[in-house]
Specification:
two-stranded antiparallel sheet; alpha+beta; 139 residues; 3 helices
Length: 139
Amino acid sequence: MVCDLQMTVSQAMKVKCRTKIYKFNPHELHFSIEPFMVGFCGNASEIVDVVDFYSRPEVYSGMPKVRNLSGLVLTESGKIFTFDKPQAWLAVDAPFAAVGSGALTALGALHTGASPKEAVLAAMKVDPFTGMGTKTIKF
């Protein structure tokens, strides 16, 4: 899974982050019985809340409420899911997927044979909210 490293605050200030992809081990309160990773886009504080929930679900009484967050889930066996609500994963019946403001460009690049990293780099060329480098996370 590949992400860009740009976070946009208040639709104006661009900030470089370390990653938008996080790995998790399965837990009885998760939706996966195998290790999975999630790539996020949306509100940075909501990303922090959901990453904390997936990391330590036993300390929460329920899933954090989110309004401006999307995610792409990749399981260790290669299954792909997407969500707008972290408690409602939707299976993706395609060999690849993308989320975020650069998703359409990235998907177009993937359909023409680009690698995931090349797809993010293509999105960085045309989307002002995608940029500041890439990060690749593998199982």
